[in-house]
Structure formats: C-alpha cells, structure tokens
Amino acid sequence: MTRHGPEQTHGPEQTVGSEQTTGSEQTAAPARAAAVELRGVTKTYGAGHAEVRALRGVDLEIGSGEFVVLLGPSGSGKTTLLNLVGGIESPTSGQVVAAGHDLSGLGEDARTAYRRDTVGFVFQFFNLVPSLTALENVRLVAELTGRGDRERSAAALAAVGLDGRGGHFPAQLSGGEQQRVAIARAVAKDPALLLCDEPTGALDLETGRGVLRVLQDLNREGRTVLVVTHNAAIAALAHRVVRMRSGRVVEVATTAAPGTADEVAW
Length: 266
What we know:
12 strands; 26% helix
C-alpha cells in the first residue's frame, strides 16, 4: 500500500477505462510482489539560495511485472525519481528498495554493480557507439555482466525485430531502429528492471508506436517496465499512471484495460 508522508500531496487513486471512477482515499498496493519501493524519499540539490528540492517526501510502490508510466511536466521530479531507482543517484533522505536492493546507503562501487547487473536503461537519445555495429553495441554492454555471447545478443536484436540488421552501423539505421537497438542492449543482460526516460521523445508517431510495441511485448514477458514521459498519450498503455508535480506524487491511477501501441496518437 502506498503510504503518504507528511509532505506529500496525493490525490485518490482512480481507475482509468472507458469511464473514470474515483476509488478510496488510500492508494491500493499492487497485487504482485513489489519490484520498487520508495518511502519518504527526498532529493535536494545545492544549498542556501541555490537549493532545489527535486523530490519532496515521495512514497511509491511498483509491483513486479507492472508497466508503469511516470507522467509530469518538466521539473516535476520524474527523471530524478527514475535516477534514484536506477542507482544513478542516491536520495537525500528516505528509503529506495529496488529488485531486493536497498539503494539508500549504497556506496559508489555497490551502486555501479547494481546498475550493471540489475537495471536496463533506455534514454531519449540512443547513446549508441557510432563505430560499432548494432550487434556489437548490444554485446558491448552484455559483456560487462558476463552475458555477452553472440547468441544472446543476436536473440535480443531479434526480440526487437532487428534480426537482419545486426551488421549495420547506427548511421545506417533509422531513428526507430536505433532506439530498438538501445532497447536490445538494455535487455540483453536480462535486467530485473527496464527504466525508460522519454523513449519516444525524439521519434515521430509511427516510429514511436513501434518502440512502444516492443516495450509492451517485453512487459508481457514479465519484465517490470517504468517509463518517464511528459507525453500523456503513452499513459493509456500502462497498468498504472503516476502523476508528479513539484517533486510530489499527486495522483496514482489504475488502468482497467491498458491499450495497445497501435492505438496511441499524439
């Protein structure tokens, strides 16, 4: 169950379907075991007049195998939250537990190992190595975890529909294909969590639909997927939508019947 800290402003959980209905005042816990738990999490940058409170007492639970969308405007804290779950940063206070790891007090070496072995990242800009082929880009990351055999990497490319493009360099691929290579690179090491920061932000509608289709397919295989976006249309694909504003979770909505990527329009 999501508990509300003293600083957090949290609206009632809603069910999103053909009609929107208001549930109880308390946010229902995911029916599955928790993959991510945040309790009273704050994140502050700077000090004094330069202090920025990016997160203000966030409580949130994400179930294993859920597809969750973090939605909010620029500056709402959604990317900061993703960075904490991904072990890129540490919270100022509170507790972050992800895939069984308590990240709150981890040192840099332990957080590096967590990022390497547990989390797959997908960013808005693909961050592919231009001098490596698609297959080599996937293997480069997979090898860091000891899972860089050619068969595993080739299977990851096939899973995102690029089994015939492994020998192509990034410049020879479309934007959508490059993003799918980035997704293959993220899943080749078999991560417990797939964290996506604006994965369709640099793509047109049709190309974006293709990327979202891949993310839904991976989620149906049992992966926990967390997507950060300002694009409200993507929320229709999620099991739950977490809305953020000014560093707080202000609403958690459950989708009664998540849509498909082909139905999304923006």
